[in-house]
Design a protein that fits this description.
Shape: globular
Helix content: 40-55%
Number of helices: 5
Number of strands: 4
Strand order of the largest sheet: 2-3-1-4
Order of helices and strands: HEHEEHHEH
Structural class: alpha+beta
Radius of gyration: 17 Å
Strand content: 15-25%
Amino acid sequence: NQAGPAVSASTSAATADKTTAIDILQRRLEVTQNWLNQQPLSTVTIQFMGGGDDAQIRTQLEELAGQIELDNIYVFRTKVNGRAFLSATYGSYTNRDEAVRAMQTLPKIVRANRPQLRTTGGIQQEIK
């Protein structure tokens, strides 16, 4: 009779994981909106990831959660060639030099995507 509860527990765990994965993207989108509204337009951030598939971005965020500080990841929606697109950035820096130094300390998986520096002002213009 112990197999029943074990199956239920693993099913519940899988459901919880799926919920967490959905919530991670939604949470980062919400946090990002507040973050953008509070930053000077000159704040520099590191854009390290993007894609048009919400599920793919959720999965990548889940994978990154154990490697970099999730509270410093910001995700925003834009359009690229008329199609919905999600971009992810990391950190808030007062200038480009500070951001470059921070970029060099990021895990290889993040640096492999050839991150670019962005300003919050530029991101806000792109979102409009």
